[in-house]
Amino acid sequence: MVEISPHAEPPVCKILDYGKYKFQAQKRKAEAKKKQKITELKEIKIRPGIEENDYQIKLRKMKEFLGDENKVKVTLRFRGREMSHREFGIQLLKRISADLEELCKIEAAAKLEGRQMVMVLGPK
User: Fold this and answer.
1) Lower Cβ count inside 10 Å, N or C end of the chain?
2) What is the reported pTM?
3) What are phi and psi of 116, to 5 degrees?
């Protein structure tokens, strides 16, 4: 016996099959879980001296990830003497954000972490 409306005069009760009630609640929960979208964080690794064709391929992949409602983490890794010319890396990350500005928003601006710069882009 389940109390439906305790504040009514007289209180309203109903006889239920508790096993059936639990089964239906479990089904509703599974249905809600099936409909939810989990956002993943995809990572693209590049270098400051990337050639134009390689850049276009990476850009196309980033557009694909953003189209699937995923976040993109762009990691720009410096090696050796490239660390003394960080401005090339900053220019490259600005170019990426300019090329993708209609598809994404910058969630985390480019920042230097050791020998790599990291920028996170999220879908609009």
Assistant:
1) N
2) 0.69
3) -135, 150
